[in-house]
Amino acid sequence: MTNNNLNKLKNQQLIVKAGESIARVKDDVAKDPLRLNYHFMAPAYWINDPNGLIYFNGEYHMFYQHNPFAPEWGPMHWGHAKSKDLVHWKYLPIALAPSEDYELDERGGCFSGSAVDDNGTLAIVYTGTVVRDGKLIQSQCLATSTNGITFEKYEGNPIIPGPPEEGSSDFRDPKVWKHEDKWYAVLGSCKNGKGKALLYCSDDLRKWDYIGVLAESDGSMGTMWECPDFFPLGHKYVLIFSPMGMGEKKTVYLVGDMNYKTGKFTYDTLGEVDCGFEYYAPQSFLDGKGRRIIIAWLNAWDWMPWWKNFGPTAANNWCGAMSIPRIVELCDDGRLNFRPVKELEVLRGDHFRLENTEIISGVRVLPEKLEGKCLEILAEFELKSCEAQEFGFSLMRSVDGSEETVVSYNVKGRELRFDRNRSGSGSKGVRTCKLESADDKTLKLHIFVDTFCVEIFIDEGHTSMSNNIYPQPESKSMDLFSSGGRVKMLSLDIWKLKSIW
Q: pTM of the predicted model, to two decimals?
């Protein structure tokens, strides 16, 4: 048997082994009351970065970083699922397992990457990773599929064996796209404490030429750029990445112009994709309707030590989830706008509505029976006549009020505040952000609540904030509040959302 056939057999054996590991626990995992209702999760164990997002042959495909053996970061595989509507997902067999013995082998894990349609073949470009003699070695590899389910690794791997002089051993997460008749890839790297995106070019996805540094930090944008994503949007180009060493900022975007002759991207606008505690490594794709959509990992590398302690779900053999899909739009001022996809409306169930209601301190607005841990909330407040200093929602509230999550708006500071100091176990801290579109007329809040996740979109998506909380199961009531005066709520819609599982 040839080495190539041996590697194919080994890869298939490891995929079967991973599938058997998941099968042993997935039924028990599905019964966990902490499981999310409409956010994508792996069937069991660990999940992090979304990979290979693509609309292929009329279906949405999502691959994801996956440890199929434990609820913590480990030997990275590529999990796989598909959907017809971006809402309901069907699990597919694991696509990639770390198996090959390349000169720069990948047995440490099949790290993040992307997928493209190569004339009807679904092609994946990903990072193979190993730690050898205490040193990190990362190379870029290729795998292909004709049926979109089973993948064969390219026998000529690695297709990019190592970093250029301008890079470092941190050399990963290729995002591939086609421009005119050539393939391009951007990879995350760093040098001398500055994050950067490196640009490559290819005619066939197999032989790649290094072009140069697409863009890099000026010293204020992190020490390493993880999971870079580069795409055209309207008349501009957008570079999104998750920077290491940039404090509270988990994912940022740059908007500017691309010169394919020089291989340089020049930007004039910088912003945050999401200003919450948890929103990392988003990846975008273009769907069949011409929309640019992003999905991210609903966590971040803040929890220490290192890859452990990402919340209490690990005790129940699972950890991690994906954000709801968001549409990316370019605003007239050059900034980006992020809105939840309209397809999510299919999940709406029981509906409650209020109009023209005064929110006054100490006066309950919502009926006590209105509660839930799987909700969509759409509210609009009048600011012009607002007397309050601060107002908002108390979510996931216990009967005695000792446990609650507070989402509020500071009127004078024009600032959104998320307080999870009393949200439950393992979830502490306050996150604030200035609203990019704040004015003196109205404030619109669009909130998605799902068991332990809260995603907030403000003023039609000009600002977004995602956070995890871990309240007790009985903490599921809610109400509105106002301090320092009254505020008029023009409208409030609350839907209970159905499960996708």
A: 0.95
